[in-house]
Fold this protein.
Amino acid sequence: MTSRARPAVPPGRIYALADAEALGSTPLPEAVSALAGAGIGWIQVRAKRLSGSALYRALEGCCRALEGTGAALWVDDRADLAALFPVAGVHVGQTDLPPAAVRCVVGPAAWIGQSTHHEVQCVEADADGAVDVVAVGPVFPTTGKEKPDPVVGLDFVRGVRILTTKLLVAIGGIGGHNLASVLAMGADVVAVLGAVSGKDGAEIEAKARHLLAVAR
């Protein structure tokens, strides 16, 4: 497969996850609008429990909310739905559709990120021509997933930085109190979920602005 250009690091080095379960009653479009309003450059929509039709409607609203903002929208897992919208990327886990198959669905322009949890997976992701972004974690204990993988720690992030030249995203338990230490280990970007979740758009935007200020 032809080598692809490395995605540009988002402004502020923050990659925010708008998770339908973590947001509770806050609609996904409202959340992504708030994140973009704060200046977050990459926003991923994650909705493990939504039906296909419900997620389709949510993505319609998210795309409308991000028009003209310059923010890049990512979709977790659902390459089939991502192919129907002007999204920047699709993120997959180790048990989701393989990156090469995702590439067949979304075409050559979209970015593809893949989660990794140990060294072998990192090496495989680095060698996979369909993968643009390597995600590692959880770096710290997290409640972002019902059954999280074992914590990898900061030293693992530093080790993976040596293994790959691809854009490296660290995820899991990251917030304003520890994001500087993660970036210091060589991560290009930190992904955050709980640190930017809130009861409404105003709270989400305020949290996002705080994180961006800390990252600077």
